[in-house]
Specification:
Mannitol-specific EII, Chain A, 2 domains, single chain, Helix Hairpins, 4-stranded mixed β-sheet, alpha/beta, globular
Length: 278
Amino acid sequence: MHPTLNHLIQLQELTEVREELEVAGGVAHLEQLNGAIVAMTEQLPPDIRVTFEKLHKKDRHVIVPVSEGVCSICGIKLPRSVLQQVQIADTPQACPNCARFLYVPDGVARNVKKRPGRFDARKPGISRFSDVSLMIEDLGADDKEGAIALLSHRMEQEGFVDKGDLLLEEALRREALYSTAVDYGLAFPHVRGVEGGALTLAVGLSKKGIHFDGPKGGLTHIVFFLVIPTAASAFYLKLLAGLTETFMEEDARKALLDAPDTTAMWKTLTKVTRKAIK
């Protein structure tokens, strides 16, 4: 991959981390993060920098993956000549329709769960994004790698994604960039850019706590693992905001952690998130 493309991907990831921290309440680290974003932006070639800043004012997506010959944001089928240049990756190539930079990911998991049809009844609240089969009442893991591995493989076992190992690899790469653990014993590991399907959430609990490199070295007790197609990023931030708002409350955290099995866990999750997640 062209070095500038790698630079753009890393820069975009930092801007996405900033959005997540703003939503999840990690404001203490924003100054440092903003400094890193400014420094990386200034390192771009002048013409690429101008385009990046122009695009970023309109939308969070500046560089996006190509999926099956299609721009993953605007959905246009790319001309063969453009697709060939993107695959060669000698120089940054832009989508002829939306002007975003394009790249072909080395390998990504695919969300294989069938989307609801146009005429299917819309599910309410959290059930739009999750299912009782994606609940784990006792993770039994001591660290973030073990917890994420259990959740990603549960998604694969239940037929939501096709490559649990790739999900784990990508989630840990994202954690290395900046921990997704926040206050109140919560963590939101996730993988962006998954092909196909819809935004998907798995939830795992740990009463003893997991070392997730969270704020002030605190333990994490509730892990929300999210798989996010590129086109669902806006929904992801709304879901993140709803989950954070709900589980800042001690009563909600206690109710979920006290659930004796996955059925009770699911019922509690749907109940306590009813107001915050529509």
